Automatic annotation (TrEMBL):
It comes from Streptomyces kurssanovii. This is DUF308 domain-containing protein. It comes from the Bacteria. The chain crosses the membrane at residues 77-97, 109-129, 141-162, 168-190, 202-224. Keywords: Membrane, Transmembrane, Transmembrane helix.
């Protein structure tokens, strides 16, 4: 029984020619060599005469019509696979930190969507081999179209966010070219009509649109709305206890309690803090001329707000001062931290008032995360801390903390320069110096940046929700003496 003739179909748009026999597809070939492989599988000898019209029928060209541009096709495959794999790696790098460690549920959903989108692009990269190959999978074109659409939306979004401030970051070298690549790939797929073969094209388009809108909504909610909708509420309290007179020494023991409580719904870092206990005194101005001293006090760099009509020449000296909770620690909503101190006061002291204050600078934890390095103190008077060292005759002595701030949404981390938080703690004879800065560059001379950082610090403080809070208390020294039984 004679075999049915082999029919070589006309080349398609890629140059691939389908081979049929008896109306059934038996293979395909890019070249004459490939056709001979198909014929051998069908039982024909290796040297079969392809010009024998009794065996082979040629449609749309003869045995010399092989328009497949192998080099161009391989280059297209390489570019498509490289772009999809590059975008996949970027999305997984961006999404996984949020999917695993974001503080908010919305942030984790956004991170998961980015990571999942990266996985889809990995599958699309595999589909490239089939689509520009023999197209055995009906949905290979749709998968590639989906992967390229995701790449265009996500890389375009990252590029748009980068353009807001145009700060250099190594990641811009990825999403900038990937955005251009995705535009090229999309127009190529549209020209190829890659959506053909999708069973439900409208539902496919609706699913892509819904996924994009969900990711955009979660990003806006976790990065913009949620960090501003809930205020940070901190309650600070300073309270004096009952003084006790020492039975063996001429001193008084005065208890002081410092308390900080996060009464809001947002966790917050402590970027700088400290408490101080002071003894204040002033001369009596019987003529009521004390108010005239305020300019004199300001010229002497003293607190001009401490003037009183019947007080003049006020003085204030530090009795005790220290950090409270420490930079880098944080308080969750409802959590509090309490520190109790007992200070020693000489009975013969000439203070009029004993004062105490608690000062804290806090930063919203839902807007940024401070790395562990910030908890390590550096001392300005120690030469071994080279970057922070400043000779005592040039600078006041400070304890310095410095660390990097990572935004709580990793999409912003890859489109912005790193931020740094620096805090200072020091004291003088009359008060403590407690300051913190948030900067968009790494401080190289931490002690010298204070004079140049005011404007930038204010902008970054607003971005990360940095705020200063303070509580004070005072008690007459005469009352301390009386209560202690003297």
């Amino acid at each position: 029984m004679n075999k049915p003739k082999v029919v070589v179909q006309p080349p398609d748009g890629r140059g691939l020619r389908e081979v049929t026999m008896g109306g059934r597809t038996v293979g395909s070939a890019w070249s004459l060599r490939g056709l001979r492989k198909v014929l051998r599988r069908l039982g024909h000898p290796e040297d079969v005469d392809v010009e024998d019209r009794s065996l082979i029928v040629w449609l749309g060209g003869d045995s010399g019509t092989w328009p497949a541009r192998t080099g161009r096709r391989h280059a297209t495959i390489a570019l498509m696979v490289a772009g999809l794999l590059g975008s996949m790696a970027l999305l997984i790098v961006v999404g996984m930190p949020d999917a695993i460690g974001a503080l908010t549920f919305a942030g984790r959903v956004t991170g998961f969507l980015f990571a999942f989108a990266g996985v889809v692009q990995g599958v699309a990269a595999l589909a490239v081999l089939d689509y520009w190959g023999r197209r055995k999978l009906t949905l290979s074109g749709a998968l590639i179209l989906l992967g390229v659409s995701i790449a265009l939306v996500t890389n375009g979004l990252l590029l748009f966010m980068w353009l807001e401030e145009r700060e250099y970051t190594p990641y811009v070298l990825t999403y900038l070219p990937l955005t251009g690549w995705s535009l090229w790939a999309l127009q190529l797929l549209l020209r190829e009509r890659a959506w053909e073969g999708i069973p439900y094209p409208k539902q496919f388009a609706a699913g892509v649109t819904a996924t994009t809108l969900l990711a955009t909504f979660n990003l806006a909610y976790s990065a913009l709305y949620q960090p501003t909708s809930a205020p940070v509420l901190f309650d600070l309290e300073v309270k004096f206890g009952t003084p006790q007179s020492d039975t063996k020494r001429p001193i008084i023991h005065l208890p002081v309690t410092f308390r900080a409580r996060n009464s809001g719904k947002v966790p917050a870092y402590i970027t700088s803090d400290g408490y101080g206990i002071y003894g204040a005194s002033a001369k009596h101005a019987s003529d009521g001329s004390g108010l005239l001293e305020w300019r004199k006090l300001l010229d002497a760099k003293m607190d001009g707000s401490r003037v009183g009509r019947y007080e003049k020449s006020p003085t204030r000296e530090t009795i005790s001062a220290a950090r409270f909770y420490g930079p880098g620690n944080w308080l969750e909503p409802g959590e509090q931290y309490v520190k109790e101190r007992v200070v020693q006061l000489p009975r013969s002291a000439t203070y009029d008032v004993i004062e105490a204050d608690l000062t804290m600078t806090i930063m919203r934890k839902d807007r940024g995360r401070i790395d562990d390095e910030f908890s390590v103190p550096h001392y300005s008077w120690r030469p071994k801390d080279k970057q922070f060292y400043c000779p005592p005759f040039e600078c006041d002595e400070h304890i310095i903390n410095r660390g990097r701030v990572l935004h709580n949404n990793n999409m912003i981390n890859v489109t912005r320069r790193p931020r740094y938080v620096v805090s200072y703690y020091g004291w003088t004879g009359s008060s403590a110096e407690i300051q913190s800065y948030v900067l968009s560059h790494e401080p190289r001379e931490a002690l010298h940046l204070k004079r140049d950082a005011a404007e930038e610090n204010q902008r970054e403080r607003e971005r990360y929700g940095v705020a200063l809070t303070r509580a004070t208390a005072a008690v007459p020294f005469a009352q301390v003496l009386k209560t202690s039984g003297i």
